[in-house]
Design a protein that fits this description.
Layout lengths: L1 H19 L5 H8 L3 H7 L3 H13 L14 H16 L2 H13 L4 H28 L8 H21 L11 H13 L12 H4 L5
Length: 210
């Protein structure tokens, strides 16, 4: 039962901190969890420690697999990744986490850095590695794979996340095909360069001198 109490406290803390930020009271967290305040202290000796565990719990699940499935093309892999990534990053829990970290990062810089590196940072590195392999194999035009990864992630969520942070959405935000449109645009921008061919055909380039 003790593990259940800890989980209840952590879930309540995630909810209350996302609503009120660090200023949330432990009394409110204990009430939402259905436990005594002393029970909160039993599992989390300080408010800072509870806050850190809550933020880390909120950040779990952001990573999206980039391992290609058997028979998938690069476009298929990126489209599957893009759809799942958008669903997770634009979901309300992740929007709440973003608001919370932006607000509290000056107070908890190491925590904010850790959550970023474990989530978005790791996703960016995995995506860059996938794009680097595609560039080396000639499936994409050679460029900076890390820059390309950051650009694709920004294209997938940046504008819409900003709108949601201000509680203003665009009709196209919820369209599932938006991920496919972004990936298609990205792949066209990095399409391999075609080798230049001579404007003259072999026949016309031969000497006409008798």
């Amino acid at each position: 039962m003790s593990d259940d109490n800890r989980q209840k406290i952590l879930e309540a803390a995630c909810t209350v901190f996302s609503e009120r930020g660090y200023r949330a009271s432990l009394d409110e967290i204990a009430r939402r969890a259905g436990v005594a305040k002393q029970t909160v202290y039993h599992y989390f000796p300080s408010k800072d420690e509870l806050f850190a565990h809550a933020v880390e719990a909120m950040g779990e699940g952001i990573l999206v697999s980039l391992a290609p499935l058997e028979g998938e093309t690069l476009a298929d892999t990126l489209a599957r990744f893009a759809q799942t990534f958008r669903e997770r990053v634009l979901a309300e829990p992740c929007i709440a986490l973003h608001r919370l970290l932006v607000t509290e990062a000056p107070r908890f810089p190491e925590l904010a850095r850790t959550v970023y590196e474990a989530g978005m940072g790791e996703t960016t590195r995995h995506l860059a590695a996938l794009l680097a392999r595609a560039m080396n194999e000639g499936r994409l035009r050679r460029d900076d794979p890390l820059f390309a990864a950051e650009l694709l992630l920004s294209m997938l969520t940046s504008a819409e996340r900003n709108r949601r942070l201000y509680e203003s959405q665009h009709p196209e935000d919820a369209l599932p095909e938006r991920a496919d449109r972004v990936v298609s645009f990205f792949l066209r921008a990095l399409a391999p360069e075609k080798p230049m061919t001579s404007a003259l055909s072999p026949a016309s380039s031969r000497s006409t001198t008798p």
